Amino acid sequence: MNKIAERIARLRALMEERHIDAVLVPTSDYHESEYVGEHFACRKYITGFTGSAGTALITGSWAGVWTDGRYFVQAAAELKDTGVELMKMGQPGVLSLEDYLEQLPDGITLGFDGRVINGKMGEDLKERLEEKKITLDYHAALVDEIWEDRPPLSAEPIWILEEKYAGKSAKEKIAQLRAEMEQCRADLHIITTLDDIVWLLNIRGNDIPCNPVVLSYLTVTKDEIRFFVNPEVVPQQVKTYLEELGVTLWGYEDIYDYVGTVRSSRVLLEKGKVNYTILRSLDSSNRILDKMNPTSLAKAQKNSVEIENMKAAHIKDGVTMTKFIYWMKKNIGKVPMTECTVADRLDQMRLDNGALDQSFTTISAYGANAAMCHYHAVPETCAVLEPKGLYLVDSGGQYLEGTTDITRTFALGPVTEEEKKHYTMVLMSMLRLGHVKFLQGCSGLSLDYVAREVFWKHGLDYNHGTGHGIGYLLNVHERPAGIRFRVVPERQDSYPFMDGMVCSDEPGLYIEGSHGIRTENQMFCKKAEKNEYGQFLCFEFLTYVPIDVEPLDTKLMTDEDVVFLNEYHAQVYEKISPYLNDEEKEWLRQATQPVKKA
Fold it and tell me: Among 50, 70, 222, 518, which residue's beta carbon has the most beta carbons within 10 A?
């Protein structure tokens, strides 16, 4: 019996003992974070699937994992021989998790840990399963009980983000939040999303890998702010700073007792983010105002200081990436390289050039591995790089000046005609989206076609969004604006674009068993002209890193596509070359020479 099968067997034994017929295990912590620390990796522990998104369901005789298109190839490989079935979300003939639950036998008990299920999902389950007389046990944290040698909760120290980086004081942000609360007549606001909490208080931490956040909860009234956090992670300097803001410290777990004491209040919270246990702890005398946290929109609109800082962060990052590409191009076939060793080199280069951390785990993928768009190389199985084919690297850094996220695909040697065609289409798509102009009020649902048109004309597509919001020294995926062609409710990224929002631009194409291509820049939204039709908006690139022209087929490009590329490369050379040595500078000069349409 393999280790996953053995763990599931132990879970089933505990389920039988507790009279629980099915157990739901999501990918979440107590805060609905996209990425979670190892302490919270229950779904990974019980199934073996390591992707960042997915939900497991274990019954007495069946086990399955629902995940999205980013992870179909990876999940299939990792779940092989575990006895856990892959449920491909959104694919024809595949029941959704909710529909599957509705087919469970009447009268059973469904168990889960209410701290890792959001309030909206908990209420939805209750409503859906009520007619079937299915009992919900939201105190059934059964995986916790069988997990031996479980990593402890992270307890990294908090530090203060200076106003020269934040661009606005915490005092101003708190006043703005209280004004929003007054507008909807809220007596109490409960915030559990970690990026919103640290953004509001202008603090940072290191409790989730690559996300500089602090495990905590926050409650705000018109005259009180309670910060629920492990007291051991708050240095004296930070305590003094928080006291000056009117913030009082409480134990991390005290949130549940506190919300249970609240009576007859108008409570502003977001059911899709606050966990189900907190929601159920609130007395029925309270009125719930279920709205997106006001901080989420405020945080997404970067102020002028943040934008200027992010430009500086991207120069640092662009220099690192340019040096890395130069090194790989010069040394492929001469020195041993694997997906893992080159990723490690890039990660270290970032740290050596001022990064505090990665902004996510580097995706280093050669050849067919790049067809898995969120592939992660591991030393035991990673591919050896050879002087042929395409290599994809998707990576980013956390800097005091902001968060970066960039993907480049480049040739390590000869490539096929099909690879050239696909590479060129991806580049055209990325550049066209970066040059779009649109009226204020437009969301990414409208903009996405600009990117996908080149693929759809040829009957091709990619199974992920085209762009996501990006935080400032925070989460690399940030709501509420993004770019995709259909609404995906759980992504919460269909909000209209506003000036100051920062977004990725990352179309791709993935041919299973052959190759994968993605080209990604970050860009920020800014005002264009205003006239009788309204306020127009446009994007400006933040990312300045050369785009490999070796696999380019310019005959597929329009004259405008060629102009876009040449203008971009001129800016790359201007911004990046002053930080390179003579050999690197000469290589970049040649790499950014204007191309001509064939």
Answer: 518
Total Cβ atoms within 10 A of residue 1: 9
Asked if 282 and 290 count as a contact pair (C-beta separation under 8 A), the reply is: no
The candidate with the shortest Cα–Cα distance to 391, out of 545, 507, 512, 517, is 517
The model's pTM: 0.94
Per-residue pLDDT of 485-540, as tens digits, reads: 999 887 889 999 999 999 999 999 999 999 999 999 999 999 999 999 999 999 99
Torsion angles phi and psi, residue 157, rounded to 5: -70, 150
Give residue-wise pLDDT tens across range 367-399. Answer: 999 998 878 898 988 999 999 999 999 999 999
Residue that the structure tokens 């620390």 belong to: 37
Q: Which two three-digit tokens encode residue 512?
A: 């299973």
Joined together, the tokens standing for residue 95 give 């029941």
Residues 6 or more apart whose Cβ sits within 8 Å of residue 558:
428
Half-sphere exposure (CA, 13 Å, Cβ side) for 93?
1
Please work out, in degrees rounded to the nearest 5, the angle formed at the alpha carbon of residue 458 by the alpha carbons of 457 and 463.
95
Residue with tokens 């791709």: 508
Distance CA 378, CA 368 (A): 15
Task: Tell me if 480 sits within 8 A of 493, measured CB to CB.
Answer: yes
Cβ contact 22:111 at 8 Å: yes
Query: What is the spatial distance between Cα 7 and Cα 13, in angstroms, rounded to a whole number?
Result: 10
Round to whole Å and give the CA distance between 571 and 586. 15
